[in-house]
Amino acid sequence: MIGIYGGTFDPIHFGHLRPALEVLQGLGLEQVRFVPLNVAVHRPQPIASAPMRLAMLKAAIRGQPGFVADPRELQREGGSYTYDTLLSLRRDLGSSCPLCLMIGADAYHGFLDWYRPLEVLELAHLVVMRRPGHDAATGPALRKLYLERGSDGPVELESAPGGRILFQQVSQLEISSTRIRDLVTRGLSPHYLLPEAVWELMAREGLYGPVVSGASSTV
Ligand code: ATP
Ligand code: MG
């Protein structure tokens, strides 16, 4: 069973990484594939370039068994639709491999507005990670979908390639890329919100704002 973790990763931070590790271990996944998006379809475009976001992602996961950077959306023109990404993964991994699309609660709330959401749910299971500031309550349509498709654990997910929705308990870290970018723009250090190696890259490249003096020992 393989986890797919899509996002802007602008930049990647501990709020992505710690929950991803807990899902990897909690569901016994073979790997988590981090898939940075190229062209956003439901939100403003990323600030950092695609190569920089990929470089930060690789720096963040280096040495962590089971974590893989998957650049397939960056190699595709046009809007980064999860539906297309899952079709492409199915071509590579086969039709029977259980896939778990990992999303935070904020992304889950908008799930039915995605491109072809029900086909997405046929192609993969949804594993939803709670997130501070985003409660579990959803609208009637999503509640109905959960009543039909809700799952209570990994054994059920293992037994089908996709189609189920599982809420997975993860550490609640109140961190967002927006907050990190805001700090840097204001000349404040984002230290301890993200891996040191990512912060070093950001500082070296002058990403998101001026270099913060004394923020990192190696720059
Ligand atoms: P931004 O503030 O730019 O939107 P972000 O921190 O929300 O960035 P994204 O790249 O938008 O990060 O999110 C990618 C995925 O990671 C989404 O499914 C999102 O819900 C999830 N996610 C991000 N931060 C957290 C967190 N702190 N806890 C749980 N899930 C998270
Ligand atoms: Mg976000």
UniProtKB/TrEMBL annotation:
SUPFAM superfamilies: Nucleotidylyl transferase. It catalyses: nicotinate beta-D-ribonucleotide + ATP + H(+) = deamido-NAD(+) + diphosphate. Pathway: Cofactor biosynthesis; NAD(+) biosynthesis; deamido-NAD(+) from nicotinate D-ribonucleotide: step 1/1. CDD domains: NMNAT. Residues 4-182 form the Cytidyltransferase-like domain. It comes from the Bacteria. It is an enzyme of class 2 (transferase). Belongs to the NadD family. This is Probable nicotinate-nucleotide adenylyltransferase. It comes from Thiorhodococcus mannitoliphagus.
